[in-house]
Amino acid sequence: MKVLKSWIPGEMKPAETAFMVFLALSISTILLKQEYGNPIMGLMILSWFFVKKPYDSYRAAIGDPWVVFSMGFFLLYLIGMLYTENIASGLSQLETKLGLLFFPFFIASYGRWNNEKRNFILSLLTLAVSSLAMVCLVVAFMLSTEKTGSLFDLDSSFFVYNQLTKVLFIQPIYFSLFILFLLVVWQNRLITEWYGLKAGKRGFWLALQVFLLIFLFLLSSRTSILTYLIWSLIRTFDLMVFKKRRATAVLALIIEMGLGAILLTQIDVSKTRFSEAIDPDSSYEKDEFAGRSLRIEKWKCSFETWAKNPVLGVGTGDENAELLKCFEEKNIAEAIRWQYNSHNQYLSTLTQVGIPGILLLLAMVFYPIFYGVKNRDLTVFAIGLVFFLCIGSETMLSRRFGVLYTSLVMSVWLVGLSGFGKRNK
Fold first, then answer.
1. 214 in a domain, yes or no?
2. How far apart are CA 268 and CA 270, in angstroms?
3. Which of 140, 147, 344, 350 is 20 to 30 Å apart from 390, CA to CA?
């Protein structure tokens, strides 16, 4: 109980604290049942009116850059409904993207949104995601022992990739986003606050870091693992060039990356997926994990589809139908069978809502990166880097889990930055 109390910002009222706890429970529920996402977030917004009564603050919230980006992105897809042919698919896209508006408005209307409250949300998010990760491991252990009949003869296939997150009904890439976010944020905090921490907290944070790192590699998401390695190299370079007397932190990062390399070579699924990703001869027609070659074909079709409607795109609901025509012309059986989308948010946005959409998406991507560089806020920079790299291989803003990540995580850290000025304290 003392630990929980220590997390709660002193200025928060009981009703606000209860709402924050409800927020954490809601995040866990949404991760478990994605179809409940928008109804739960809508309920949170309604309940927030009773807790905070933020009628006046909503008007102020509209001036926040991240709120403007989120509103603009949704409005472009709303306009895209005017020239789409597939109304049902377009409405489904709009319903999913509606989630982009909930958390930006909630946080911007809160008032006094500062680092203390960000850290509180970080603690709750860490608790929620780590608990779900433990559930995955426990279920994997139970399934393995049921199959082998032994507690010690474990079937490793249950502990990796799709099998590991099967209990959550969530693809590994989307759960890995939350793991990756927590990994880079806690890594950064551990480095910057190391000398001010007591031995007990140091041990806890180190254990958390190792747990998140191992779980990330078990999920075997190539994009998330690659993003983690790129971020760690950038952080190491920053410490070596711009920081003094940080030899311990540099050594720790090198050890952590070394542990990651060991995991990559020892976890067969991760090793195979990365090997096929860098093998120019791998093909989706003959290799199980050759998603790179299939993605390239999808990206070619996306670009060709956009080229036919370069200014405004094909409309909010017509992307998949237009891509399917291209897949059929090129006889890409796998893509035809699963009716894939672009698997790239940049190309998906370009295909659906054209040049205005891609310009706004790029603004959303580079806003935190530029802010982080200008103000040497490495947490914000890392959040922008994760977003920039991960949407290059997934249509994150067309999937509920991707929208939840973007709406929640990005909003918690980006709302209240006041443009390119200094972060609110």
1. yes
2. 6
3. 140
Here the tokens at position 214 are 């191992």
Q: Based on the structure, what is the number of domains in the chain?
A: 1
Cα torsion 290, 296, 301, 305: sign? positive
pTM over 0.70: yes
pLDDT at residue 395 in the model: 92
Q: Are 23 and 124 in contact (CB under 8 A)?
A: yes
The C-alpha R_g of the chain, in whole angstroms, comes to 22
Please give the structure tokens belonging to residue 168.
């959550």
d(CA 99, CA 405) in angstroms, rounded, equals 10
Residue 213 and residue 259: Cα distance in Å, rounded?
9
Q: How far apart are CA 400 and CA 106, in angstroms?
A: 18
- 353's enclosing H/E stretch is helix 345-375
Rounded to whole angstroms, how far apart are CA atoms 417 and 420? 7
Tell me which residue range forms the domain holding 351.
Answer: 2-280+343-414
CB distance 326 to 305 below 8 Å: yes
Task: Read off the DSSP letter of residue 245.
Answer: S
- Whole-angstrom Cα distance, residue 196 to residue 74? 43
52 phi-psi bin (left φ>0, alpha ψ -120 to 50, beta other): alpha
Q: Do the beta carbons of residue 104 and residue 60 sit within 8 Å?
A: no
For residue 259, being part of any structural domain is answered with yes
Do 415 and 407 meet the contact criterion of CB atoms below 8 Å apart?
no
**Could you tell me if residue 329 is inside a domain?**
no
If one compares 338 and 62, the residue with the highest pLDDT of the two is: 338
Does residue 291 contact residue 275 with C-beta atoms inside 8 Å?
no
Q: What are the helix (H) ranges across 220-344?
A: 222-242, 247-266, 268-278, 291-308, 319-330, 333-338
Burial code (b: 16+ CB inside 10 Å, e: under 16) for 272-297 equals bbbebbeeeebebeebebbbbbbbeb
Lookup: tokens for 370: 């530029």
Burial class (CB within 10 angstroms; exposed 0-12, middle 13-18, buried 19+) of 339: exposed
Q: Is residue 333 part of a domain?
A: no
